[in-house]
Design brief:
With 470 residues, the protein is α/β, with parallel strands linked by helices. The strands form 6 sheets. Strands 11, 12, 13, 14, 15, 21, 22, 23 and 26 form a 9-stranded mixed β-sheet that branches. Strands 1-6-7-8-10-9-4-5 form an 8-stranded mixed β-sheet. The termini are far apart.
Length: 470
């Protein structure tokens, strides 16, 4: 009779010696751990409110990809994909993992990718209980694993906020480091408590692995109409992907990251990560309701110390306040996380100059141009140092997460749009009547009405004026 070692007894496989791991805890148990350790506060009506400290957004300048023979030739090296030498990584890895000796850690075995044919088994190890709950909400937990099915992770993400990188010793820019190594199949995150770094590290991994299998990874949300028609919504954080795809008349596939394969589209995640600043129960009822539920993790949201009532309008810590919740909290979610080939593709841009019209129909050539240019405005709080909208060009609406040359993704999108005859729309969710400070932000209700008309086919017979500049 053969015997096997229970993988849950230690983290020797990950190079962590003598740790005290707590494996796959339930949301309720993670609440108890987070509150016991002083990581968060139970707010009125049930959400867990946590602070991310100094870092209230991603730290894109502190993200590194390790140079190694297997992936080096495929990476678009530069300001986005900053190289880290193998020797520097080995030193960083040794110090980072060594500092976890005898630590109390939280381990989550889960997946990225709703389509079983393309899903990626991952393991997330965190020093904070609330980070484990965040990942439990955002990634996919398979009930079959709890029944004894072995989980063999293909990538491991280890998040240790308290570890500070040493620029001289580790070759980093600061004491923050997000290091991705395709050879060791690891992501090591140090010096930042912003939970979004884990989410976007997994997205970066998929943006490398899936094109090699003919799947287009996309920074977009997706939903399905009653007739089975899928729609994609491209856009950077703050442009309205989450809000506009959460339509009571359509089923939500997912709010942020998807793949487009020969089988259709599928969600990478099992939850949503929505901005909550000035969230309205009238304009965004479904997302608003998630901020009042047990199981939701709220980042940097202000609350009354006595009553624990939330104040979603307050930006005391940052404008980038967030809610992380399972997609099951959305009443009309498509729980399979999958849909057919999209009939419509919507590109969202928050035009800070008030130049673009509210909605435009794009030719295939214009669609490729806008996809490659990715014009929008960085919205306050999403990244460190951004305090007001500023124009930016984020290739493929997701440049910070693209390891490969942008042309590879654009070519795949163009081929899929042509093959499936998808209609493409450019929608301005930014300013009208003048630039930021002079004009006004587009009203969500107006944008919803335009998108509803576009997806329903009501605009197919409407006359369009060709703009030779755009």
């Amino acid at each position: 009779m053969s015997t096997s070692v229970d993988h849950r007894q230690s983290l020797d496989r990950e190079g962590i010696v003598g740790a005290r791991p707590k494996w796959n805890l339930s949301p309720a148990a993670l609440y108890e751990e987070a509150i016991r350790r002083g990581e968060g506060t139970l707010a009125a009506e049930g959400p867990l409110v946590c602070r991310t400290g100094q870092h209230t957004g991603r730290s894109p300048n502190d993200k590194f990809l390790v140079r190694e023979p297997g992936s080096e030739q495929n990476i678009a090296w530069g300001n986005v994909n900053r190289p880290m030498g193998a020797e520097h990584f080995a030193t960083f890895q040794q110090d980072f993992l060594g500092s976890l000796k005898n630590a109390e850690l939280y381990v989550l075995d889960c997946y990225a990718g709703a389509d079983p044919q393309y899903r990626l088994p991952i393991r997330v190890i965190t020093e904070y209980a609330w980070h484990s709950l965040f990942c439990r909400n955002l990634f996919i937990v398979d009930p079959a694993d709890a029944a004894g099915k072995p989980h063999v992770p293909e990538f491991t993400i280890i998040d240790q906020s308290s570890f500070k990188a040493d620029p001289k010793r580790h070759g980093t820019r600061s004491d923050v480091a997000i290091c991705l190594n395709f050879a060791t199949r690891q992501v090591l995150i140090a010096g930042t408590s912003y939970a979004g770094e884990m989410k976007k590290s997994v997205f970066t991994i998929l943006n490398y692995l899936l094109p090699l299998r003919g799947v287009l990874p996309m920074h977009c949300s997706a939903n399905i109409g009653k007739g089975g028609d899928s729609a994609l919504f491209f856009g950077l954080s703050g442009t309205g992907k989450t809000t506009l795809s959460s339509d009571p008349d359509r089923m939500l596939i997912g709010d942020d990251e998807h793949g487009w394969s020969d089988r259709g589209v599928f969600n990478f995640e099992g939850g949503c990560y929505a901005k909550t600043i000035k969230l309205s129960a009238t304009a965004e009822p479904q997302i608003y309701s998630t901020t009042r539920r047990f199981g939701t993790v709220l980042e940097n949201v202000v609350f009354d110390e006595a009553t624990r009532a939330l104040d979603l309008d307050a930006d005391k810590w940052t404008e980038n306040t967030r809610a992380a919740y399972p997609i099951t909290f959305i009443d009309n979610a498509e729980l399979s996380g999958q849909g057919g080939h999209p009939a419509n593709v919507v590109m969202l841009t928050a035009d800070a100059f008030g130049v673009l019209p509210p909605i435009s129909r794009l030719t295939p050539e214009a669609a490729m141009y806008h996809f490659l240019s990715g014009y929008t405005a960085k919205v306050a709080g999403t990244e460190k140092g951004v305090t007001e909208p500023s124009a930016t060009f984020s290739t493929c609406f997701g440049a910070p997460f693209l390891p490969m040359p942008a042309g590879r993704y654009a070519k795949m999108l163009g081929e899929k749009i042509a093959k499936h005859k998808s209609r493409v729309w450019l929608v301005n969710t930014g300013w009208t009547g003048g630039p930021y400070g002079t004009g006004t932000r587009m009203k969500i209700g107006h944008t919803r009405a335009m998108i509803k008309a576009a997806l329903s086919g009501a605009l197919d017979a409407v006359a369009f004026e060709r703009d030779d500049i755009f």
